[in-house]
Design goal:
The strands form 2 sheets. The protein has a 6-stranded mixed β-sheet, sandwiched between helices. A 5-stranded mixed β-sheet has the order 2-1-3-10-4, with helices on both faces. Helix 1 packs antiparallel against helix 10 and helix 12 packs across helix 13. 43% of the residues lie in helices and 19% in strands. It contains 13 helices and 11 strands. It folds into 2 domains: 180 residues, D-Maltodextrin-Binding Protein, domain 2 (3-Layer(aba) Sandwich); 127 residues, Bacterial extracellular solute-binding protein, family 7 (D-Maltodextrin-Binding Protein, domain 2, 3-Layer(aba) Sandwich). The chain is of the alpha/beta class and 329 residues long. Helix 6 links the parallel strand 6 and strand 7.
């Protein structure tokens, strides 16, 4: 059960606080909101989350305070979304699993859907991306605030992989997303859905042989300590979404709501600026610590998943899929 927020209603202080911009005096307790994510404190997600929290507090003159909980403290991705739906989690950074709550997100997870980062940005920050967020709110009760960019997803493995044929028998951890499971199966691997918090120990004990994530994500979790190869597949150009419980949003005053929206936009700019640098630094660290980087011809991997992409596009959003394909350069 969620604890009630412990702020004093505006109506109870109306006369004394008539001159206050946010309707609540400095002597009142702030509205304490929680933001959860699955990454470590060294990750760009966390740094930008802290920036977002600071901006919210500043822009609301302290009437709203956001506390950040990294490393799956408030639960895994799916737990966070379900928490926002019932109001036990106020904000979350979530990647991928939104397809379990609103079908069109499954299209965005298709391997080799986007040809590069520019293609992804054209979609996310255009009218189609805004429409997706509006539809998400209506379908789930979770409000999309901003899309943050991520580095391309790359494969790490303990077996040398240079083509799809080399993936036969490789047990690869994937998120619990149909496009990931079916895509890697089509490329020849044996996909195993698993929460990210279990990946390091599972690689260490041989339960799985491989995993796939953006380089910075992999490095910040020290996954490279139990993997030999970094295979540059560029199979997904993805995003992480800053989401908010609409139950929480509606509890805020209009000025506080506007402050949250402004803080989210500024935090997105902050995160997008640092993520590329962090990717470069993470790659160098992994190479320095003994991981071997493997460049591959991506075309055979791309060809292997085309039937999966067409089938899932028909199932979850042919119009969205064709719109994104039409944005290719």
């Amino acid at each position: 059960m969620r604890l009630k927020h412990t702020w004093i209603p505006v109506s109870a202080m109306m006369v004394a606080l008539a001159g206050c911009s946010f309707g609540e005096g400095a002597e009142d307790e702030p509205k304490l909101l929680r933001l959860g994510h699955i990454q470590s404190e060294s990750n760009a997600w966390h740094q930008a989350s802290v920036e977002f929290a600071n901006l919210v507090q500043e822009k609301t003159d302290g009437s709203v305070k956001v506390e950040v909980y990294p490393s799956s403290t408030l639960g895994a991705d799916r737990d966070l979304v379900e928490g926002m739906q019932i109001g036990s989690v106020d904000f979350a950074l979530v990647a991928g699993v939104m397809s379990n709550f609103y079908d069109p997100y499954a299209v965005l997870e298709l391997p080799y859907l986007f040809e590069n980062l520019d293609h992804l940005e054209t979609f996310l920050y255009g009218e189609d991306g805004k429409r997706l967020q509006e539809d998400t709110l209506e379908a789930t009760g979770v409000r999309g605030l901003e899309f943050w960019l991520r580095g391309a997803r790359q494969l790490t493995t303990n077996r040398l992989v240079e083509s799809p044929a080399d993936l036969r028998g490789v047990k690869i951890r994937v998120p619990n997303i149909e496009a990931s499971v079916d895509g890697w199966q089509a490329m020849g691997a044996s996909p195993t859905p698993m929460n990210f918090g279990e990946v390091y120990s599972s690689l260490q004990t041989g339960v799985i042989d491989a995993q796939e994530n953006p380089i910075e994500f992999t490095a910040s979790a020290r996954i490279h300590e139990v993997q030999d190869y970094l295979v540059m597949t560029d199979h997904v150009f993805g995003y992480v979404q800053l989401l908010m419980s609409d139950l929480t949003f509606e509890e805020l005053t209009e000025l506080e709501q506007q402050a949250v929206l402004e803080a989210a936009e500024e935090a997105r700019i902050f995160q997008n600026e640092i993520v590329a640098t962090q990717e470069e630094n993470a790659l160098q660290m992994m190479l320095d610590e003994g991981v071997e980087q493997i460049e591959v011809d991506q075309e055979p991997f791309r060809e292997a998943v085309q039937d999966v992409n067409e089938r899932l596009a028909d199932k979850y959003g042919r119009e969205l899929y064709d719109t994104i394909q039409g944005m290719r350069e």
